[in-house]
């Protein structure tokens, strides 16, 4: 067969017989491929590797930072300022001692700093694909030309015959040819806690879910036990792992709400500034009747442009977010991408994986049914502590001897080990068998002790065809301390007559029951009636309907060791012991976290690869869904169009048996509905949805490297409740960002209006130089703004719905506040400027005629200190607040005021910043005018309180 006639790896392999699959790929189960087959297939299918799509280069990311409209305007301002200085230098009009180009250098330094800050935040390399590649095995054993050879995994091609054994990582997707007790851990890919028991002889329907494809194996999963022979069907990017890699790279990064708001803010500020500059220049030209004062008008325009841009805002926001990440780490939430801190506060929907996120990723027995009674079993995780309860009351094991017998069966018919590691109980082996050991421990039955009482002599192992397991034990004499004729442990004495051997069997309840002829009742056995059979089957159905995984147990005394291969005859005439129902139990703290989410207007949704009954049971228990709520399965979702899914996505809170593509579609549908989505997950299958979600949240303990690299945040304790704490912190951060934006931009508007007014009211010169404006925007505004960023949360922060992530930065009155306060700032400062100009130009004035500019500069700076103190609360007066609840604001006000006075009274600084000495009277006037700002804001609070309105 030529390479061109081979299939395109898109065949539905799980729906084909083994022989048909071998024919399609022109391969042989015994001899594999020939050496002539390999090269054409490598050319057709490519190497068995995950391919990486080239992303933006580092220099492109850096260049993109300078496309920000505010930075572009500052660059333009720096260039024009440099040209003006160059003209003045060449014309010799610079003042003595004046440093040329200092404004240009300062502005460009700010531009470069902001560019670097943006680059550092954005340039973190995405390593999700690299983590995905680690799941692929480096070497693999295959049959080629009838010989067993070991090759590099990347050399695998469709048609190769691959051999599997316990402990191996599977290197490609394939159709099973044959297997022996093959169990594969697929939880990273499917999200299911228990291992998959593979079966080569099955032929499955095409629409079979990924987790139910028991006749195929997948790249990146792990063989737990058994062996197998596999026909390789898919390699590289056509494997299920490859599809995840493709989805990961196809997801485009959307700007966060904060980034969108900052872009909007920049557009508004720059547009408003350019309009104001045009008005001032045109007004000045008309007033002067020509261009004779164009240089002065240009200097005014430059100062206005610098004043309107909040140069310190990017740095303040970055530091605020960084402080938020530190607080979150203390609460076990590690932020990987800085903007995610604020983004968390906008979340409206949390899509949570089940296994390991809402649940403990530990199978725990919930229910035991024996002797027509169903007992509830208490306890958490693998710790062998808990009670057996009947009708809500704790029962004594002496009153229910059948529980002891069942517990012995759970302990000895078991290949796993329960052990305590660093104070935590852990399981070595299959989670299902671990749950049985824990159950036995709660009844006081320890496997180690029973190994000597019942040494194992033969085993009929579990297989997916048999769906059961039997172990034969030799009954040993023990010192019981009780009156017992044979010295057999009392827990099993009632199971035996005089037989020296005892067989315990566990497996599918229906199959075990069908092979049972008697039932164990108390300390006796009795024939199993049809009524009892129906009752046992009804109990089994009831447990299954609650999402429990149910196993049946039975025993049979043996006169001799059954011969090898006699399982069919030996496993007949069993004595029924009972049913054991287990569940990957919910985390105990999640119920309260789900309720807190609902109180905060956040909707939790479960998305899992597990069965729908299990998903419904867990979701209902946790309060994610109500009894009778619809469960949408992967098969139903597959048949839906994107439009149909979008119509249903707000009505469904449980998604079961879903694949990675489904998770991605669900998140995208929610986003199209305007929801702001956080997605939690820990498996490889979660990575594309984690990256698509507005906030991807990975598990730190159970999470794969792939999921962590695709996420925005990692839960260090895998605790769903930590998400609630992180969301609260995100809301606090956003509230504080709005607070200091109000603070910064209110003063900026005041500065712009003050500068624009100077030439229009006939004052000579520009009141503020670009360097002085940069000082105000970086220091006078920056330090108090940082202090406002750590303002403690308001009491009702988690008792209200989230604010819309698409709301404008000017929403809820912030825009009107900035304009209102900016105008008040300007009125106060222009009044001071008029008085100061008249004062310094009076004939008897002895000081520098330009001292009025320093008075304007000082008034603006000190007025901001009053603004910082007053703005701490939107509604409470300053005297009603504890001044030490945010000591950083007081410290910032004191330090900034001292620094401002140093610019006026320290000669080197005075010379560099172009300020002038002020006498005590002038300084007192500046402080008096500045205090009016504080008085105005406090008066506004009183007015709004009287009017019964709540401030922004």
Descriptive notes:
Helix content is 47%, strand content 17%. By secondary structure, it is of the alpha+beta class. Strand 12 and strand 13 form a beta hairpin. Helix 10 runs parallel beside helix 29 and helix 33 (887-905) crosses helix 34.
Quote the average pLDDT. Answer: 85
Strand segment count:
28
The description of the largest β-sheet is: 11 strands, mixed
Strand content: 15-25%
Fraction of residues in H or I helices? 40-55%
Shape: elongated
Question: What's the structural blueprint in terms of helices and strands?
Answer:
Elements: H1 18-24, H2 35-45, H3 58-65, H4 69-91, H5 102-122, H6 128-133, E1 139-144, E2 147-152, E3 161-165, E4 173-185, H7 187-190, E5 196-197, E6 216-217, E7 222-234, H8 240-250, H9 257-288, H10 294-308, H11 313-329, E8 333-335, H12 340-343, E9 349-352, H13 354-358, E10 359-370, E11 373-377, E12 388-390, E13 393-394, H14 401-412, E14 417-421, E15 424-428, H15 431-442, H16 447-453, E16 456-460, E17 468-474, H17 490-493, E18 501-507, H18 509-514, E19 516-521, E20 524-527, H19 530-545, E21 549-558, H20 567-570, E22 574-586, H21 590-599, E23 603-607, H22 612-622, E24 631-633, H23 634-639, H24 642-648, E25 654-656, H25 660-672, E26 677-681, H26 687-692, E27 695-699, H27 705-710, E28 713-715, H28 720-760, H29 770-780, H30 782-788, H31 814-840, H32 851-870, H33 887-905, H34 907-913, H35 920-947
Parallel strand pairs: 9-23, 9-26, 19-22, 23-25, 24-25, 26-27, 27-28
Antiparallel strand pairs: 1-2, 1-3, 3-7, 4-5, 4-6, 4-7, 8-28, 10-11, 10-22, 11-12, 12-13, 14-15, 16-17, 17-18, 18-21, 19-20, 21-22
Helix pairs in contact: 3-5, 4-5, 4-10, 9-10, 9-28, 10-28, 10-29, 11-28, 11-30, 14-15, 21-28, 24-25, 28-30, 28-31, 28-32, 30-33, 31-32, 31-35, 32-33, 32-35, 33-34
